[in-house]
Amino acid sequence: MLTQEELRQRIVAVRRRIVAAANRVGRHPSEITLVAVTKTQSPETVAQAYTAGLRIFGENRVEEAGPKAADVARLIAPAAPPIWHMIGHVQSRKARDVLPWVAMVHSVDSLKLAERLGRFVMDLGSVEEKEPEPLSVLLEVNVFGEASKYGLTPEELPSIVKAVSVLRGIRLQGLMTMAPVVDSPELARPVFSGLRLLRDHLARAHAGLDLRELSMGMSDDFEVAVEEGATIVRIGRAIFG
Ligand SMILES: *Cc1c(COP(=O)(O)O)cnc(C)c1O
Fold first, then answer.
1. 39: Cβ below 6 Å to ligand 1?
2. Are 33 and 231 in contact (CB under 8 A)?
3. Which domains, and CATH codes, for the chain?
4. What pLDDT digit, counting tens, does each position of 28-76 carry?
């Protein structure tokens, strides 16, 4: 486990790299949200990262994340609990299990999953007898088909966006992608610019939709992703080792 000071320094280094990448292309660094990916990290390490100033954490497994979020909340009490994002594949039969702890789901890759998430949010609302706050979601896109196992193809994206945008209980806010593992981050650039072009195209076709978020970039390629317009970067190893 890293010491508190080592962790702090690693976070500072990552933030500096985000700022430098944003500056290179004339973007304001405040446009970019850092999600610290804590999969496989202990609740104690997450609490340490919280103490070091991080507030948004990403998890990729439903089974691991719920209990961890509860443990972290206990460790840092009475401070306000952190914000959790689901970044990994969610089987639609497990959709209900993400709701208690999640603020945003990056990895919606089917209409069925979107429908179930929306329905469960509305169910919770009816129990509480008030209009529920919709859950923020992103659609995961497999920009060049081969990039990863999950994600929508660019071809199926327009019809899914249309269907998802009218669902109650969820609010579509943008797109997410995972670049393939490549030797140089430069090779991931077309994936990131491709996601941005897809988003721009959808935004023109659906003037009423706010597709502001582009979740793209991980430890090995986040600077290139920021240069290409990422608004959310998901970083694990560069922070936690
Ligand atoms: C693990 C993971 C990350 C972070 O990867 P690092 O290379 O550790 O930065 C980002 N996004 C998703 C979906 C992941 O599963």
1. yes
2. yes
3. 4-240 (3.20.20.10)
4. 999 999 999 999 999 999 999 999 999 999 999 999 999 999 999 999 9
